[in-house]
Amino acid sequence: MVGYSRRTGIVLLAVALFLACGGIGARADPAPADTSQIGEIRPGPGRQTQLEVYSAAMGRSVNMTLLRAADPDTPAPTLYLLNGSSGGSDGNWIDHTDLAEFFAGKQVNVVVLMDGAGSYFTDWRADDPVLGKQRWATFLTRELPPIVDEEFDGTGADAIAGVSMAGTSVFQLALAAPGFYRAIGSYSGCARTSDPTGQAIVGAVVTTQRGTVADMWGPPGDPDWAANDPYLHVDKLRGTAIYVSAGNGTPGHNENLGYTRGDAIQLLYQFVFGVPLEAIADMCTRQLQDRLRAAGIPATFDLRPTGTHSWGYWQDDLHRSWPMFEEALR
């Protein structure tokens, strides 16, 4: 029920305890984007449409769920939503938020990716023995959006938001294709990735999904780490609407058995892992706020006085950030 998988949470807790004590890089050329295509469309349940889209860059199909705009006969913009480190297998926007109800009357297509575990949704420099070929920036900025627009009557206006790991990725995607996404939303992410703290977090996320982090940006200290660090390249975010949120790790209104529907294990998880993970996100978010302010780049920051690393707060974040997205997508 959280953006990080439980296994990732364990490793990141160790990272948190250790810390308490103490432009985009070169990429392999993808296959031509015009060979990418929808492989399968399956209706339901409810307003959902299940899609499989073949990515030429990655040489495989990617699963996702689409919620059609309120009036499917009228062109609509698209909001892409990314899950956390598990890629959606251990908690996702569809299963753990009121996404369908919230967007029921809104004129926007919503696409939720059900893939990308441990990938940071970036283009990796090398194919990984376990995770395979990772070309997510290519897929999300060049391959997928034109396909969605053509098949589902899109306007060409796009925005993207993500939780946890993907709360970092949305910034890197904005760097990969400046201006492509009109707005980005980062919920409980950590934009700074190349300093020792950031490298520890990224390494924990990737390795607990059995990936090899050196296949992504090289070994620690490689120039690709700095090249892919949004904190170091905030000038490329100018002109993009930005919403960033995080709690401070203090238990809040979702830390009770009523919220977890009597699931005591989930409640324990939110206390044991959700508290320190969100404290890290809070630290990263405040650093980014200072950086953007110093650069004179406008952004909306929602620094919640309570809240752990869990879906209930991210649902609230999406609700609060929607007016920004709606304005940017007009």
Task: Write up this protein.
The protein has 330 residues and is an alpha/beta fold. It has helices at residues 6-21, 93-96, 99-102, 136-151, 165-176, 196-208, 214-217, 223-227, 264-295, 311-328; strands at residues 37-43, 48-55, 60-67, 76-82, 109-113, 154-163, 183-187, 241-246, 300-303. Strands 1-2-3-5-4-6-7-8-9 form a nine-stranded mixed beta sheet, sandwiched between helices. α9 (264-295) links the parallel β8 (241-246) and β9. The longest helix has 32 residues, at 264-295. The two termini are 32 Å apart.
Q: In a few lines, what is going on in this structure?
A:
By secondary structure, this protein is an alpha/beta fold. Helices cover 38% and strands 18% of the residues.
Topology of this protein?
Blueprint: H1 6-21, E1 37-43, E2 48-55, E3 60-67, E4 76-82, H2 93-96, H3 99-102, E5 109-113, H4 136-151, E6 154-163, H5 165-176, E7 183-187, H6 196-208, H7 214-217, H8 223-227, E8 241-246, H9 264-295, E9 300-303, H10 311-328
Parallel strand pairs: 4-5, 4-6, 6-7, 7-8, 8-9
Antiparallel strand pairs: 1-2, 2-3, 3-5
Helix pairs in contact: 1-6, 1-9
